[in-house]
Amino acid sequence: MATLKAGSRLKSAVCGTQVMVIAAPAGDLELTCGGAAMVEATASAAGGSIDPEHKNGTQIGKRYVNEDATLELLCTKPGEGSLAVAGTPLKLKEAKALPSSD
Amino acid sequence: MNLMMLLEMAAEGMGERTAVVCDAERWSQAELFAGAGRIAARVRESGVERVGLLDVSSPAVPLALFGSAWAGRPFVPLNYRLSGPELDALIERVKPVLLVTDADRAGKLGGRDGVEVIEREAFLALARGTAPTPERDWSMEPEDVAIWLFTSGTTGTPKAALLRQRHLVSYILGSVEFMSADEADAALVSVPPYHIAGMAAVLSSIYSGRRIVQLPAFSPEGWLETAERERVTNAFVVPTMLARVVEALEAGGGKAPGALRALAYGGGKMPLPVIERVMRLMGHLDLTNAYGLTETSSTIAVLGPEDHREAAASDDPAVRRRLASVGRPLPGVEVEIRDPEGKPLPAGGRGEICVRGEQVSGEYLGRASRVGADGWFPTNDGGFLDEGGYLFLEGRIDDVIVRGGENLSPGEIEDVLLDHPAVADVAVVGVPDVEWGEAVAAAVVLKAGATASADELQDWVRKHLRSSRVPQRIRFELELPYNETGKLLRRKVREVLDPS
User: Interface pTM (ipTM) of the complex?
Assistant: First the structure.
């Protein structure tokens, strides 16, 4: 897996999930969705099936973070697979309730 | 990152929802997305470098904003109140440009080099058209400039603030939850498109799934009528708009729009009496005071509904005065008060408000960025933080009066004068003085039917503040000069108080 850059888009190789990188640590990360390595959003479909261990799904508009929140992804298209780094599932980032100011 | 990604998500997650309504025009999120694609194709075809809009609010605003982002060109909403040489100068800076405008202006602006004019109706028809939507090929480069927004130029030539894709996307992701609005929610947008609040309203409403109801020309009656007809649930107003709505409600005995739930205000100093009247008239509303600048991609601090209620109900003066604050910084935004040497001040210290965060641009066209190496942007707004972290504004640093070597904040003196029972509005400025360098002068508007002499007001200030703060000169006026978005034009006040 290549290094991740804020603003870049990735997609799942095995489900409909697409994400945008909001923040990423330096260095290589083994980012997976549905148990399979994620690919560039522009890559052609690879096929394959979702690992049942990684099948909790992603939700559009939700943000996902790793343990120390150095990695943050925004789900731009939902899918059935779930996101993980080196096998550890990413967590849903809690949304803070803010009053609408505009 | 690109604003188009936000619209794409909205179109896919809630494509059938109405995105924008203006009179009889209605666009769903999916239609807006497809329309933005057709506009992008047109922009690329024309080979211009920017997309301008010299017009009141209409669905052309979100279409031009997103279409520009798709095409990779900055969107430049221009102040439609400008005319003549001022407007010509801005257009010169924006070209080569595809300029969306109304039929009347289109005739006058045609035939200029580098300015391709398209009438609003033709622009909308093009976006509605049958041309296929192009490939989703917008750039995801975070540094691309999304919007040029000319500052109001109350002190000189307007500067173009540059807001990059990353600033605006960060603002939305940091402050709005995707699809968090109820399907019935609607936001009334009455600020003009060339105001940062107008841009922010479009973006946050689209992303949250809240229907945008546009009011092209503000009047208090039109605002109330549109809010009722469209079952508006949320609205943002600048102080002058809110004061006029309150007056209309009080005069006509009319009632607040039935579905209205949340009212946000900002864009200028809101007099405390207006807020207290709003709370009396519409106590059920969730009130939010928002503070932000063009250069910070809109809101950086909010005084939320709970803050309003807590402050209004408190017997503790320190808590109660928070009603006049702009609340606390948004998550992801840091605020610091610094002294003239740039050192951070503790709670209560008065100085310049500095801000840091992903949404902060602090950059103008053709000038070096004002953001320091440490990421902090000096806002030129003066203020202080209280013990609870609530931020209080005290006017622009440039407006500080230097009298005999002492720095005086006009805001502090204005607040005291506003507390006088006869005073409706006041502006305090420095005027040249032989003895002191600068002297304190005040333009005062009295409440209808009330009287007060200059002596009485000077005594009032002397009772509450140190004697150096007492206005040496007081002039009574029928009204103070504000621009259309509620900014006090201190330059004009100074001209009146110092005719020399």
Answer: 0.89
